[in-house]
């Protein structure tokens, strides 16, 4: 199995999970929104989708490395919801580089809709400091 095939399976699994039950998990969605908002703010972007769209490849690679390290740490220490939020954002970023695959190209906007909604809910609950 290629890395791209493995990624497609994982993307489909995450999307299915989010669509079936993940969005009902308020804590997981809050963590996802918090992480997306925090990263967007760190990158001086208005929101996650803008940050993702304007991110330079080197920055994307750096963020993905940080996600891998942090996600693995959360997973090892039993913080599944934090690891899951990082995984969703990482998959959104990785999808950018695999858009030539029609299945990934179709899944990316579905994942981004969920992330954008989680971020919007987080920002309503926790407004930006001025």
Shape: globular
Number of helical stretches of at least 4 residues: 6
Count the strands? 0
Rg (C-alpha, Å): 14 Å
Beta-strand content: under 5%
- Estimate the mean pLDDT confidence: 91
Low-confidence region ranges? none
Largest sheet: none
Your description of this structure?
By secondary structure, the chain is mostly helical. Helices cover about 80% and strands about 0% of the residues. It has 6 helices and no strands. It has helices at about 5-20, 25-40, 50-55, 55-75, 80-95, 100-125. The chain is globular and about 45 Å long. The mean pLDDT is about 90.
Task: Write a compact overview of the structure shown.
By secondary structure, this protein is mainly α. Helices cover 79% and strands 0% of the residues.
Which terms summarize this structure?
130 residues; mainly alpha; 6 helices; globular
Mind sketching the topology for me?
Layout: H1 3-20, H2 26-42, H3 48-54, H4 57-76, H5 80-96, H6 102-125
Helix pairs in contact: 1-6, 2-3, 2-5, 2-6, 4-5, 5-6
């Amino acid at each position: 199995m290629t890395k791209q095939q493995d990624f497609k399976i994982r993307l489909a699994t995450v999307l299915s999970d989010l669509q079936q039950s993940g969005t009902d998990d308020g804590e997981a969605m809050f963590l996802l929104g918090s992480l997306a908002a925090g990263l967007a703010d760190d990158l001086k972007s208005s929101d996650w989708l803008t940050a993702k769209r304007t991110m330079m490849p080197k920055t994307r690679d750096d963020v993905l490395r940080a996600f891998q390290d942090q996600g693995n740490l959360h997973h090892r220490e039993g913080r599944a919801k934090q690891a899951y939020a990082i995984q969703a954002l990482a998959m959104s970023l990785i999808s950018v580089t695999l858009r030539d695959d029609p299945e990934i190209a179709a899944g990316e906007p579905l994942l981004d809709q969920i992330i954008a909604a989680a971020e919007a809910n987080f920002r309503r609950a926790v407004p930006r400091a001025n």
